[in-house]
Design brief:
- The chain has about 190 residues and is an alpha+beta fold.
- Strands 3, 4, 5, 6, 7, 8 and 9 form a 7-stranded mixed beta sheet that branches. Strands 1-2 form a two-stranded antiparallel sheet.
């Protein structure tokens, strides 16, 4: 029998939430796969990509908002805590949810933009992908600055995304149901570094 993530967790979710609540403002803490993670503060190109994507979403789907830096309960049984660079959901979707960490139910897409740090591969390309799939988020959009590409993960099933096509910056990318947004990504070349 394979041990569960909870059996190897560094702390409980409650202990993490207490620690995170008292962390300095300049530090963003996440709890992924039972382990404490420090999310780096975004640089200006990172922020520009999120704002570019926010604008695309608002123009094409005004009934939805891309909530920047949204704190979410992720993974199976919502035992993880992640700061998504963006969470696409209906207007006022998170209003009325109790506590700091929002449930992913009703979120159509989460977005992560890779950072220039040594942990970005494990965090954004593996752990968060798996956490969002386990939470049944329909679409996970990874803006991979290192590779100059968008990876569109979709069709979560049994804790894993079934589809994950990759598109180089410059391609026109149609985000699948339920997002239904088309991204002309030429502008992302300006933010590549």
């Amino acid at each position: 029998m394979t041990p569960s993530i909870e059996e190897h967790a560094q702390m409980t979710v409650e202990e993490f939430e207490h620690l995170e609540k008292h962390a300095p403002d300049a530090v963003k803490l996440e709890f992924i796969r039972g382990k404490l993670k420090v999310k780096p503060m975004p640089d200006q190109r990172h922020r520009a990509i999120v704002m570019w994507l926010l604008t695309q979403c608002m123009q094409q789907r005004p009934e939805l908002l891309l909530y920047p830096e949204q704190d979410l309960k992720v993974e199976a049984y919502r035992n993880g805590r992640a700061y998504a660079d963006g969470a696409l959901a209906p207007v006022d979707h998170f209003v009325g949810q109790e506590g700091m960490w929002a449930d992913t139910e009703g979120v159509l897409m989460v977005v992560e933009v890779t950072s220039k740090d040594s942990d970005t591969h494990l965090r954004d390309r593996v752990e968060k992908r798996d956490g969002y799939a386990a939470a049944d988020v329909p679409v996970y959009l990874l803006v991979d600055r290192d590779k100059g590409a968008l990876v569109v993960f979709s069709e979560p099933m049994n804790g894993a995304y079934q589809r994950c096509p990759t598109y180089p910056f410059g391609d026109t990318v149609r985000l699948p149901e339920p997002v239904n947004i088309t991204l002309a990504t030429e502008k992302l070349k300006d933010y590549a570094d």
